[in-house]
Amino acid sequence: MLPFHRAVQDDFSAVNQLIIDKLHSDVGLVENIGHYLVEAGGKRLRPLLVLLTANALGYKGKDHLALAAIIEFIHTATLLHDDVVDMSNLRRGRPTANAQWGNAPSVLVGDFLYSRAFQMMVAIGNMDVMAILSDTTNIIAEGEVQQLVNAKDPNVTEANYFEVIDKKTAILFAAACEVAAAHCGASNAQRQALQAYGRHVGIAFQLVDDALDYTGDAATLGKNVGDDLAEGKPTLPLIYAMRTGTPAQAELIATAIRNGDASQLPAILEIVQATGGMTYTLNTAKAQVQSALSQLQQLPDNHYTQAMRELAEFSLARSF
Fold first, then answer.
1. Mean pLDDT, to the nearest integer, of 253-275?
2. Which residues does 176 contact at the CB level (< 8 Å), separation at least 6?
3. Any idea of its EC number (predicted)?
């Protein structure tokens, strides 16, 4: 457990139990895959943001537990679909669900998790929450399609890259904070600040994720290093290196992206380091974290908001 989890340790345990309870299905394969994913763990930052936001605002009810579980179900559904699209075989240090059971069951259980999340939303009965999360899931789907279109295209611009990670990753971080704020009756200023905080943390998280794909190690990351290159994903370290490197360096990276070829990974990593692509990416993430922290001035100063500061800083400093 990371330090900032401890601020809401009891709530976090309750959410984990609720997730297990809500995975119940009369179809055994649904439960098998669902429990496999839950047992894999993960950082659970998105549901944690729901819990921290609600507690920071002084919420005394129990609906925030269900909201946190809903956010985790939506996130897990996107991972199931992602791994099928990307043909990934390793996540969180274990074989992916599609590697274990095949693509069709993974997609269908992802659909189950989406629909279970919306059943739980209906039970809460807050139209504002449903509006936020229905918009969010739609935007995530757009981001996934946009990323698919960008695959193996070395001409993707930095602006286009940021548009994808905003839709694909940051939007759910933002929604986690905003649904808690909306349900807890936060002021408009607080709600906007929390939404912006989540978005900045989400962008920083993805930037670091993209950097770790070139500098981490598989054992620590729980996934294969170089996966992005093998999938032909033009992420920020590569985009910057192509823009600032020599024509020969840019062409080597462009060819690897076009072919989805990770065989040149060591040479490409040297180019990314030499051109300052990794430094640029991490400095951009650092600026996002600073923007996130500035938004917390709208919230009461308590140990929950302090944990939110720590979570934002973790998104930058993490190695997994």
1. 94
2. 46, 47, 49, 50, 53, 68, 71, 198
3. 2.5.1.-
* Strand-pair partners of 297: none
Q: Which two tokens stand for residue 111?
A: 């659909």
CA-to-CA distance for 192 and 10, rounded, in angstroms? 27
3-state DSSP call for residue 179? helix
Kind plus residue range of the DSSP H or E element containing 6? none
Q: Which domains does the chain have, with CATH numbers?
A: 3-317 (1.10.600.10)
C-alpha span between 21 and 272 (Å, rounded): 46
Q: Are 241 and 253 in contact (CB under 8 A)?
A: yes
290, two tokens: 């600073």
pLDDT at 257 over 90: yes
For the whole model, what pTM was predicted? Answer: 0.94
Low-confidence winner among 18-27, 83-92, 105-114, 297-306 (lowest mean pLDDT) = 83-92
